[in-house]
Specification:
This protein has 247 residues and is of the alpha/beta class. The protein has nine helices and nine strands. A six-stranded mixed sheet has the order 5-6-7-3-8-9, with helices on both faces. Strands 2-1-4 form a three-stranded antiparallel sheet, with helices on one face.
Length: 247
């Protein structure tokens, strides 16, 4: 399926964006981007550096306001309390509260998010991400990998219905990556995962949206990417060609 928006049905979706434009000064980050992600979908947002991936996630998370166009999270504008309760957001190079300990970060964000059974949820995440030995450590003293683990825990502590993740496996060692992937794949949440690494997209998602220079250039299932291609063609080569042809 191409990037053509004609005939799209924007009802009954968890994430909708219609003709979204965003500029930073003279630079256009998004040029009429439209998305229609159904509840339960697991979608990769693929694109080169500067394509508009992080801008898209920030707008969906309510941290940025688009210049024009409509964005809704299950019918609510992203900056509303209703939408924020549903969203878990992991930015690229996330920075938790550095002066708080690991547990204090989790307790604080968990309380703000009105997390049910917060103590049990914190203990589960500390064990899942192997942060138990660091729970009393000030976050500023953590390694970059452990800081990423904490940021991931903060994004999902309230069991959000919709998870927006920007390069979620950055800085994680391979065993931790495997535990995180296994945990996320058991989740019933709707995913939108921004990445430029196709192996991550293939592991975490079943659909992908490719954007380049602020425009959607392709959308479909990951197996659809390989249709009509020689069996031994690397998926990265296919994606790179789609991006290049769009410029």
């Amino acid at each position: 399926m191409s990037g053509n928006e004609a005939g799209l049905n924007f009802s009954n979706a968890c994430i909708t964006a219609k003709e979204v434009w965003k500029k930073y000064g003279p630079n256009e980050a998004l040029k009429g981007l439209s998305l229609n992600i159904q509840c339960g979908d697991r979608v990769a947002l693929i694109g080169p550096n500067g394509a508009g991936k992080s801008t898209t996630l920030k707008i969906l998370a309510g941290l940025l306001k688009q210049d024009s166009g409509e964005v809704l999270i299950r019918g609510h504008e992203p900056n509303t309390l209703e939408a924020k309760k549903m969203i878990g957001y992991l930015p690229e190079d996330a920075s938790p509260y550095l002066t708080l300990s690991v547990r204090e970060n989790l307790e604080y964000i968990g309380a703000i998010r009105e997390t049910t059974n917060l103590a049990e949820r914190i203990d589960m995440l500390l064990d899942l991400l192997e942060l138990r030995d660091y729970e009393k450590s000030r976050t500023s003293r953590l390694s970059r990998g452990n800081r990423q683990k904490l940021a991931l825990a903060l994004a999902i502590i309230h069991e959000p219905e919709i998870i927006l993740m920007d390069e979620p496996l950055n800085y994680l060692d391979i065993p931790t990556q495997e535990r995180v992937i296994s945990f996320l794949m058991k989740s019933r949440a709707t995913f939108l995962v921004s990445t430029h690494i196709m192996s991550i997209a293939e592991r975490l998602t079943s659909k992908c949206i490719i954007i380049s220079a602020g425009l959607k250039v392709w959308e479909g299932t990951i197996p659809d990417l390989r249709k009509g291609e020689p069996v031994d063609t690397p998926i990265e080569s296919i994606v790179a060609r789609l991006m290049t042809n769009a410029v």
